[in-house]
Amino acid sequence: MEGSSIKALASLLLGLVVGFSLASKCIMPRSREMHKTVHRTSGGHCVFDKEERTQKDISGGLLLQPQDKELLTAVNNVPRTSNFIFIGVMTAQKYLKNRATAAHRTWAQTVPGRVQFFSSEGSDTSLPLPVVPLKNVDDSYPPQKKSFMMLKYMHDHYLDQYEWFMRVDDDIYIQTERLESFLRSLNSSRAVLLGQTGTGAQNELGTLALEPGENFCMGGPGVVMSREVLRQMAPHIGQCLREMHTHHEDVELGRCVRRFAGVQCVWSYEMQQLFYQNYEPGNKGFIQDLSNSKLYNAITLHPNKSPPHQYRLHSYMLGRKISELHHRTIRLHREILRMSNLTNAEPCREDLQPGATACFKDLRPRQRQDVREWDFFTGAHLYPSADWYQPRRALCGPLKAALDDIILQVMETLNANGKARDYVVDFKRILYGYHRVEAPHGAEYILDLLLLYRRLKGASVPVHVRRHAYLLQAFSRTLFREESNIKFTQLEDKTDQVSGPITYVHKSLGRLSPFRLSDSSSDFRHGLATVNILVPLSGRYEVFIRFMDNFEKVCLASKQPVKLLVLLFSAENDVESERGGAECFRYTELVSEYHRKYPWADIAVQPVAGPFSRGRALHVGSSHFSNNSLLFFCDVDLLFRADFLKRCRHNAILGEQAYFPVIFSQFDPKVMDRGRARDNQYVFTTKTGLWRHHGFGIVCVYKVDLVRAGGFDISIQGWGLEDVDLFNKLIRTGTRVFRSADPGIVHMHHPVVCDPQLDAERYKMCLGSRASSYADTLHLAQLWLEKNQQDFHWTNITQTHVD
């Protein structure tokens, strides 16, 4: 006994020695090699000083969060399985080139398995799509036979190659990563049928031959079945086709599975969220509201029948993925920075700013002017604290997009553990909120949210609650991108041609002063569209001198490809009169001086008879240009820079879009500046002027779009409305209108004269425009108080003595 015990102990010791020896030679070097790989990938040379840290330490949460485990998979070169799921897409011959192609180019590219499109017999297989034409199957509706024969094809060819099988339509969108993650949490060896559970529409109750407690998976959002379900059901497909009770393909599929596989669609509230069917009012066959949090959390989205909307949805999902990866990068930077602080190691420079944790405590203003005021907003309107001219305005697009993104993140945070707690939280609306941007920290939000708490199990009444959210959206580090070798391509048939020379004859002097707008061959910058500037003018010679001085500095001195046409009304409304001709001569003589100084310049003066009418002047002026000419309707009171001309070219698109810049209009310098001249006219503050959001007179548009819209209404005389009329015409004819506050153009202040003979509507508009041109509301109030303070004080004293 003792000998055998000693021998057993010796064998045990020998085995331990051999085991440790093998481990030291085979396992430990591999562990160190794996550690070095992660070390380099994470930028670890700035974080870790010891190479002895093991893979277990890293994957245990010190560096990577649970959601970052796929990073370790990529580092360790572990390939994803490609035989996980087979997706059969039901389509038809007429949809192969549009819907099926859109699905193949978007979500089908990232499926962890195979995707094939099943169509009728004789379908075109020459397209770059994996098309399977099913024998003895046509494209008739309802597609019951097509659906069952597609499943039989899956069973006969791929049953043992894939764990899961899915039946979808060609107007579906699938988030393949979420689909794989969800299915890997389930046991594919069991009989499982997944989808959005249905029992029929309200008007179909009792007509689908369903027993109490029976259901089916709705076909639109997709149906997923395990290999075991397909194995048990497929041999009986012929019998299921012969014994159908309805015309609904998804109802009969559910009945066949329930009859021969013994399972039915899973009863679960979560399935309605994962397999999303768009029931929104006004559904036009595609998903419109991309900011809906239900879309982002879903696995399948249905319907999306239009290929452009399919591509649009795919682009949005890719953008969301970029945001996720960027956020994950920031979390890793923060973890690296925290590890550096714990190990007393010097952090990398690139980890300092993105790794800094956002905190409200960092926002400590030291002076009153450092405090940024809050802007108040409701669900539809914004009340900016610093804008006295427009105290209420509609929520702008960027702020709405930011709020949608913030709400999405807030709801994801609230529902992160909702399944474990047996409830979900639905967002209803924002009751009100506050917003400000505090550079360089970020954007701050205070939101009053109306939420709906809903239990997942059991009968309960949803509860509406209000919650406050205090949020800080921190700024990350600034990214600089340098673009070089920008090429401007010259578009064909966009050259500017004129119908002929524009000539002004001055009879009193008995001589001819010709000015000709030359053709495009005189352009100085090939590849840039020529901007044809049209300026209506009546009197105001000193203002015209200022305009020409600015035109020389911006356009002539730098040889900008522009042409100037001045549409001149005489003071006497008659160019044949001696006084009218003499006044017109002043303008033509001034233009002649510029023409002598710049012989290549395209400057012309066109006389216009009759009383001043801006619409008629621009109508006459635009008639001298071809349909492919870019027109800039300008005023003599404007000053502009070269950057505005660049935006004029880029934002006006031939046959598609017109550019209506929002002009900054200066206040009366006599009121705001006490008559002092300003050194810089391009200062945009609430004390220098206001943005004319409701002004539409300045526009860059191609002649062809102007003609298609019907041009100006030349019957409008006097002040206003001709610009609003053109704006509405362009919209009605399908021309896209682009508006933006443009810092490259300024409207200089001038007195506004309102003719009492105008109709009531235009006279009221004119008075409002004149009143808003003096100063901002706060400054006018201060002036009134200063002027009336002495009288007001004396009135109070007198009243006191009388009492």
TrEMBL record:
Catalytic EC class: transferase
GO molecular function, one term: glucuronosyl-N-acetylgalactosaminyl-proteoglycan 4-beta-N-acetylgalactosaminyltransferase activity
Signal sequence range: 1-23
Membrane topology: Single-pass type II membrane protein
Localization, UniProt: Golgi apparatus, Golgi stack membrane
Keyword terms of this UniProt record: Glycoprotein, Golgi apparatus, Membrane, Signal, Signal-anchor, Transferase, Transmembrane, Transmembrane helix
Any Gene Ontology CC annotation: Golgi cisterna membrane
Enzyme Commission code: 2.4.1.-
Chief location bin: Golgi
InterPro entries found in the cross-reference section: Chond_GalNAc (IPR008428), CS_glycosyltransferase (IPR051227), Nucleotide-diphossugar_trans (IPR029044)
Similarity comment: Belongs to the chondroitin N-acetylgalactosaminyltransferase family.
Official protein name in the record: Hexosyltransferase
Native source species: Conger conger (Conger eel)
Classification of source organism: Eukaryota, Metazoa, Chordata, Craniata, Vertebrata
